[in-house]
Design a protein that fits this description.
Layout: H1 8-14, H2 16-24, H3 43-48, E1 51-56, H4 58-75, E2 79-83, H5 84-87, E3 98-104, H6 110-121, E4 125-130, H7 136-139, E5 143-146, H8 159-179, H9 184-195, H10 197-205, H11 209-217, E6 223-228, H12 232-247, E7 250-255, E8 272-276, H13 284-299, E9 303-309, E10 321-325, H14 334-351
Parallel strand pairs: 1-2, 1-3, 3-4, 4-5, 6-7, 6-8, 8-9, 9-10
Helix pairs in contact: 2-8, 2-10, 4-8, 4-12, 8-9, 10-14, 11-14, 12-14
This protein binds 5-amino-5-deoxy-1-O-phosphono-D-mannitol.
5-amino-5-deoxy-1-O-phosphono-D-mannitol (M6R) binds near residues 104, 109, 157 and 245.
Length: about 375
Amino acid sequence: EKAGYASFMLKEIAEQPKAVADTLLGRIDGSGTLSLDEVRIPPGVLREVDKVVVVACGTAFHAGLIAKYAIEHWTRIPCEVELASEFRYRDPILDQQTLVVAISQSGETMDTLMALRHAREQGARVLAICNTNGSTIPRESDAVLYTHAGPEVAVASTKAFLTQLVACYLVALYLGQVRGTKYGDEIRDVVRDLSGISGAVEQVLGTMDPVRELARSLAHKNTVLFLGRHVGHPVALEGALKLKELAYMHAEGFAAGELKHGPIALIEEDLPVVVVVPSPRGRSVLHDKIVSNIQEIRARGARTIVIAEEGDEAVAPYADHLVRVPATPTLLQPLVATVPLQVFACELATARGNEVDQPRNLAKSVTVE
Ligand code: M6R
């Protein structure tokens, strides 16, 4: 049951540190080597893979978008990510050397199931990332990596998403390890960084009061925009999806670099814009670009809600509201940056009087095409 929480969604948000830790459990040995028992595709076959295609819907699709950055960076294998509902109707190019990764919390999403059936008919190997033991999608796949989020009851996906990300990183790292890439040292470092992620998510959850207060103060707004770059772009899309489905508000996520190609025309006085800022360490060029994006929208009246890593002082002068997340490597940042967006959407929806566990018109598992 709800264990004292007002909703399943709040309970599931709070369970994320454990869900993340459980999904990592037993998959990395003492020497930092990955072992994925449920991936029953022989290493020899994985070494021959020349393309990865991720198929999924909704929030799971956003996990796939983030997976692409990790897979291409750590394995150097080209990776496409496609909405399952689009994939099968466009005659995709697939063969025995294609690895299709189907991501689904429920394991019953019809569009994703149809996409994986189509992929297998073309000879591709399918690896499912799934949260529901024995469900249809893993049963019909060549291999499965289960996420250990535990049952997710609320329609809006939260803890399943974070564990899907963990599973995607594990797949990317495992592929990198099996094939051997020049990123061997980096892979070892990331394996170490992943073990600290559960604590980082816990830390974010402990600092959410100002986010809840901000959400309540914006309950009367009609529109909220979300911006990000690199892996922050799918995080922005996820923040917008949460707000749509829970608060029934117009919410849109954009790649920050696209602003000047159209969306900046939407900016008006006091429009809330959430910006996911990448770490200033590592890929600093991304960081500097987004700081100028924040300046550009603020100059046009936007109310900037900035999610930035601790110690990033460069963004502070341009943030009307600053939400701090612990420092992580850039590729792992979605694990911490998504959490405030979940809390924001849940609180805003509640302030509007909406039923957060069961939003109107939606079902937890979409078993029709
Ligand atoms: O069970 P699945 O992961 O296959 O579900 C996919 C989507 O229907 C799901 O993520 C949906 O977008 C959520 N309601 C989002 O919060």
